[in-house]
Write a structure and sequence with these properties.
globular, 259 residues, mainly alpha
Length: 259
């Protein structure tokens, strides 16, 4: 068998992330393992260290696993997130945030997998509620959230430009997506908007919405350098085409004035 040439940094990162649950595929696929591990756990880290916090980087990758429907990797990365200090409630909020954007039917298996990992780590379920709105308050809260991310009057403009007979979809976005999910505690607004961008980037095929959330990230005071670092962190998991597409959208969104 050829000498295994995983770098020291990659070894340390893998051990830190996965600990006793680290999956060793060297015996069956040593060549690919060396190539991927050195790229994902060394080379890309060289380009992101100092630009995003470790927890943020791991949360972005976790969100991308949901976006590209990578259930096996997601399950492993929940463990990794816990190992580097991401709190259970933060992990759960990433999964919850996926519901209005990816749909419940896609997210259900990730929710169940997350709870299984929590149970394996002796994390008591259910976790504490993080809702901050009620049926009565979510409508106005949703408007405030939309206007905070995309500018005063943006929510009203969504109704004005909606095709006739589709106004109820705008109301659902205001009440359900932004009034109930975006207003939750557990993670701050910057992280919530960033992980939404990461999910959509990994999902692919939703460029208009991805650009909208790139602008939302910009307006949430996330720098272009931080956005590029987030995409760089996701690249090994979502591939070059979707990563390059996300970078093009970031370059476009950050070339314009704040909206």
């Amino acid at each position: 068998m050829k000498e295994i040439k995983i770098t020291e940094r990659a070894h340390k990162e893998i051990k830190k992330l996965y600990g006793r649950h680290a999956v060793n595929t060297l015996k069956s696929d040593p060549e690919l393992t060396v190539i991927f591990d050195n790229f994902a756990f060394d080379e890309t880290l060289q380009a992101t260290t100092g630009l995003v916090e470790e927890k943020t980087r791991v949360m972005c990758i976790l969100a991308s696993c949901i976006g590209c429907n990578a259930l096996t990797e997601f399950r492993m990365y929940v463990d990794a997130a816990l190992n580097v200090g991401v709190k259970p409630r933060e992990v759960r909020e990433i999964v919850y945030q996926a519901v209005p954007f990816l749909g419940f039917s896609k997210v259900l298996c990730f929710l169940l997998a997350m709870n299984e990992v929590f149970d394996d780590n002796d994390i008591r379920l259910p976790l504490d509620d993080q809702a901050t709105t009620t049926e009565e308050t979510r409508h106005e809260a949703g408007k405030e959230m939309i206007d905070a991310l995309w500018g005063e009057g943006n929510c009203d403009n969504m109704y004005e430009t909606s095709p006739k007979g589709q106004e109820h979809i705008v109301r659902y976005m205001q009440d359900y997506c932004f009034g109930q999910f975006y207003t939750r505690n557990g993670i701050d607004l910057q992280h919530r908007e960033l992980i939404t961008f990461c999910m959509l980037a990994a999902l692919g095929g939703v460029d208009f919405r991805l650009r909208t959330h790139a602008i939302g990230c910009k307006n949430a005071k996330i720098t272009k350098e931080e956005m590029v670092a987030a995409v760089t962190a996701m690249l090994p998991w979502i591939g070059f085409p979707r990563s390059l597409n996300a970078l093009n959208i970031i370059n476009d969104a950050y070339s314009e004035k704040l909206i």
